[in-house]
Amino acid sequence: MTNPLNSLYTELVIEHDKRPQNAGLREPFDAEVHHVNPTCGDEITLRLHLDRDGEDLRIRDISYDAIGCAMSRASASILTDLLIGRTTEEALPVIDHLEAVMGARGTMEPDEDLIGDAVALMGAAKFPARIKCVLMSWKAYQAALVETQALGER
């Protein structure tokens, strides 16, 4: 396998772009957000559906409609694959680590055990404009989570 830190379009990125997981907006959903990357024109509409699981909130579904580069579409697909079924608390270290590695711009080794297939996105860390492409769907998930939690507090 190609070292993901040295390649922008790994086989896994291309595979997720060609055969995206969980693409297409579905119901039911608790929150819907729309994010745009004005730098390159990538867009995502993301829906989040949570269920109460005892004391935890479990991610039951994340669906999306993404327009843009292969990197942003693959990132959305990988996000859904990694997070659906986890609790929101279990998702936090995944997101935090992904953001830290991307922010380190290729100087930090990713924890593949933690971020799974998202390691394939790490080649973008060396290209500041591409970091936004990768992180857009993750930021949309976080915004949807905040929106869902705000609705729950009413």
From TrEMBL:
Signal peptide: none annotated. This is Nitrogen fixation protein NifU. Transmembrane segments: none annotated. It comes from Brachybacterium muris UCD-AY4. GO terms for biological process: iron-sulfur cluster assembly. Residues 9-133 form the NIF system FeS cluster assembly NifU N-terminal domain. One of its GO terms (molecular function) is iron-sulfur cluster binding. It comes from the Bacteria.
